[in-house]
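Example record

One chain of 282 residues, shown exactly as stored in the release files.
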Amino acid sequence: MSSVSAPATESSQPSTASALVELRGVTCGYGDRVILHDIDLIVPRGKVVALMGTSGGGKTTVLRLIGRQLTALKGQVLFDGVDVATLDQRQMQATRRRMGMLFQFGALFTDLSVFDNVAFPLREHTNLTEPMIRDLVLMKLNAVGLRGARDLMPSQVSGGMSRRIALARAIALDPELIMYDEPFAGLDPISMGVAARLIRELNDTLGVTSIVVSHDVEETFLIADHVVFLANGTIAAQGTPDEMRHSDDPLVRQFVRAEPDGPVRFHYPAASLRDDFLGRSA
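Predicted structure tokens for this chain:
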């Protein structure tokens, strides 16, 4: 069990007045395949919002919409009140600098040291001097407990350390929004607890807004202010972690309790067992 303090309970429906990110009637997909249909979503400033649900439900797609790696077929994706679809390339690049992204498994540059990985966005997007960059990198690494690992290469650090280095890189430009794509995947319980504590502490200390895509119920519920369950292209349920624990929605209940059968079936659709074994399914 992690030692992360539970966030304060609040209304299950965030207000548009507090939104840093808002999706209004968004429909999107890949080719002819629609992933999200007519989604309305609010991410309040200063809060940790978790996106949960079964694989393929559109959680990472939401992150891509916010960063405009994917464009909505219909509806609006607003960041700080501005529809990202209306921004030209220069304006979109400036908006992306206000966002930090922690990719699944870290996605560090393997040929750069830990220090240079964290320094990369500062060198790419600012005109700071090298002494100033050095001080900022050491500050960010210190915030994730890895200042002493600055001269190591990615191949010399563990999976948990790699994720924390990637987090230091994600906060290098002091973003207003940090997006986490499966930050707990593949981590041992200790590293998972450390990662969860860092997400919550950095959110509160830096005054940022966080969106966490995760399948890990226990750790995510400990740090989230608001939980959104995506399923079948829509928002199946949303509310505080406590409301989700006690939800009557069959899908949410199955997901939270890790039940093998429910709306998401254990068996993939198939002919009857008798017909299959008698060779009648063809």
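Notes: The chain has a mean pLDDT of 86.
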